[in-house]
Structure formats: structure tokens, C-alpha cells
Design goal:
alpha+beta; Hypothetical Oxidoreductase Yiak, Chain: A, domain 1; 7-stranded mixed beta sheet; 3-stranded antiparallel beta sheet; 10 helices
Length: 343
């Protein structure tokens, strides 16, 4: 599918489900960007669920966030269940504008709906010479066990960073768990769902290779990043994300659940306010070059920088068309029939 056609289809479906034109365009852009970068569990694969949330009123497709507190370069927003890509895009733009003046700026967003792939927001700001950080948690859900435990407490709690580089920005998008809820669900639908790695625990706390364990009764959990050997590190990162999102936002697991959503921390830093953009580039480009020149552990598999493969995939798909996961178009076709949208 051509990229413009994919965006257009997403916009028409979102509009038919009740989203305003500007919100629909923003959500479609972020979802397609996720697919372009290879995050295909967090791209258009999310659209059927987003459409259902719009139709049942659990996602708002119009309006603005409530700005609870704003200082010069720090803000707390209540999204009041707005579409996540819309409110996060606005927050990054707010922080970027103030970071250029103040050196750094941060926004915490509470009560947002789901925000899709974190990597999908990063590239434009990194290409402007800014360092960007995003993190989010979902206080309404739990699927990840704390290290040493066997009951779900937190979500995968993704975090992302990007900064300018040569020839492309460095872009990091990881979760504090071994895998995500989206990938777990996709693997569970597979004809042969058992994988090669033990990414999950069953309800008894035993390592498990079957993603369907999350749907069992009682359910299992996803292991923290690092697994059974070093999961204390992923567990700690997940707690840090909770502090920067739910803690600073004053809304999280201590409050009643409201349904699928996100609490988000956004930070934008202007290197010019510190040692300067040239000094930043000199240091980070030298580091990147040293990484690339490290002898390959496996011959023919050179060291890459985070985001390098995703940006190469994006360039290829912009030229040759979007290669969607086989699950996606059948699901979107069903949505189109229900909403009366022509494919």
C-alpha cells in the first residue's frame, strides 16, 4: 500500500468513527509512522481498537487538554481521555518551543488515551537539533511482574530518546519489560505461538514460552527487561517510568481505573543551552563512529546505532510502499464495512 493511501484510509476511518479532522490527521500520521519505522504492533494494527474506543466514547476525538499547571518550562496537563497521539504531539511542540528559550522543558500528561509507538514522535525534533525523551505508563492495566514476584503490578512502561546525529538521528525506543502487550497478543494469535525464549511467567511463577499464558485463568505475567537473570534492571527502569509519569502527574495506580490509557512524561532539551550544539555533535558523532567501527562479533553483521534500521526501513517504504503485517488489512477491511468507508 502506498504511504499516502494508508494515511488517507486511516483519516477516513477515524473521521467516520467521530474524530475531528485535525485529530484524525494527527493520529493517522503517528500510526503510519510507527509502521514506517518497523513498530508494526503499534502502528495501524492499533487502529481497529482506536476506532472502537472512539465509538464507545472511551477515547475523545476532539477538544483540547486541561492545563492544570504551567510554569515557564514545566507543565502538567490533564488530557481527559483525548486521543494520545494528538495530545502528545501538542505537548512535544509546547516543550520544544520553550526548550529553545529555557534550555529544557517538560510536560507531564495524565489521563491520556493510548499514545502508540513512542519512536513515531522523535525524528522531526531530533532533526531540529533537539534531544527528546518520552516515557509512559498505563495506570489502568498491569501485565509485568516485579523482579522476584509472580503477580502483575505495572505495564511494559516504554521509554524513548532521540538526538541529532550524522547522517541520521539516533532513536531509541525500548520497554522496561522483555516484550510488550502488543507483541504478546500477536504471538498468542499465531498458529504456533510458542517461542524460543521464556519471556513470560505462568501464574505459579515458572518461566514460560507461551504468550497465551497472559490469557490464562489465573493469568501469567511478562518478565521485566533482563529476564530471570538480570530482571532487577528492567524492574528498576519500570519503577522510574512510574515516578516520572504517575508520580509527577499525581494520577496513577492509587486512583480508580478509567480504561485503556496512558500517563506520559515529555522532555525536550536544547544542547545549545549547555556546551553548545557543535560540542554535542562532536562528542556524539565520535561515539557513534566508534560504535560503528567496533569489530563485528558475527562477520557481516556490522554494529548499528539505535534507530538506524528503522530509518532505513522508512526510506525504503516511502519509495516502494508500506509493507503491512498480514493481520492489519483484514481488520481494517472489517472496520471499513462497519463504518461505511470505501477501501
Amino acid at each position: 500500500m502506498q504511504v499516502d493511501a494508508a494515511r488517507d484510509l486511516a483519516v477516513r476511518l477515524l473521521r467516520a468513527a467521530g474524530a475531528d479532522a485535525e485529530v484524525a490527521q494527527c493520529v493517522a500520521r503517528i500510526l503510519v509512522e510507527g509502521d514506517l519505522l518497523g513498530h508494526d504492533t503499534h502502528g495501524l494494527a492499533l487502529l481497529p481498537a482506536y476506532l472502537a474506543e472512539l465509538q464507545n466514547g472511551r477515547m475523545r476525538g476532539s477538544g483540547e487538554e486541561q492545563r492544570l499547571r504551567e510554569k515557564t518550562a514545566v507543565a502538567l496537563w490533564d488530557a481527559q481521555r483525548l486521543a494520545g497521539p494528538w495530545v502528545v504531539s501538542r505537548a512535544i511542540a509546547w516543550a520544544a518551543e520553550r526548550a529553545v528559550v529555557c534550555g529544557a522543558a517538560q510536560v507531564v500528561i495524565r489521563r491520556s488515551h493510548h499514545i502508540a509507538a513512542l519512536a513515531a514522535y522523535l525524528e522531526p525534533f531530533a532533526r531540529r537539533g533537539l534531544l527528546v525523551h518520552l516515557a509512559c505508563s498505563d495506570p489502568n492495566a498491569a501485565s509485568v511482574a516485579p523482579f522476584g514476584g509472580r503477580g502483575a503490578v505495572i505495564t511494559p512502561n516504554p521509554m524513548a530518546w532521540a538526538w541529532p546525529g550524522e547522517p541520521d538521528p539516533v532513536m531509541i525506543d525500548i520497554s522496561a519489560s522483555v516484550t510488550t502487550n502488543g507483541m504478546t497478543a500477536r504471538l498468542a494469535r499465531a498458529a504456533q505461538p510458542e517461542g524460543a525464549q521464556s519471556w513470560w511467567l505462568d501464574a505459579a511463577g515458572e518461566p514460560c514460552r507461551d504468550p497465551r499464558v497472559l490469557q490464562a485463568d489465573p493469568p501469567g505475567t511478562i518478565l521485566p527487561l533482563g529476564g530471570l537473570d538480570a530482571g532487577h534492571k528492567g524492574y528498576a527502569l519500570g519503577l522510574m517510568v512510574e515516578a516520572y509519569t504517575a508520580g509527577l502527574g499525581g494520577h496513577g495506580r492509587a486512583d480508580p481505573g478509567e480504561g485503556w490509557g496512558a500517563t506520559v512524561h515529555v522532555q525536550v532539551v536544547d544542547p545549545e543551552a549547555f556546551a553548545g550544539a557543535e560540542a554535542f555533535a562532536r562528542q556524539m558523532n565520535a561515539l557513534a563512529q566508534a560504535c560503528r567501527e567496533s569489530p563485528a562479533r558475527v562477520p557481516g553483521q556490522a554494529v548499528r546505532l539505535p534507530g538506524e534500521r528503522g530509518l532505513a526501513r522508512k526510506r525504503h517504504q516511502l519509495e516502494h510502499g508500506l509493507a503491512l503485517h498480514p493481520d492489519i488489512m483484514p481488520a481494517l477491511s472489517g472496520c471499513a464495512r462497519e463504518l461505511g468507508v470505501h477501501l
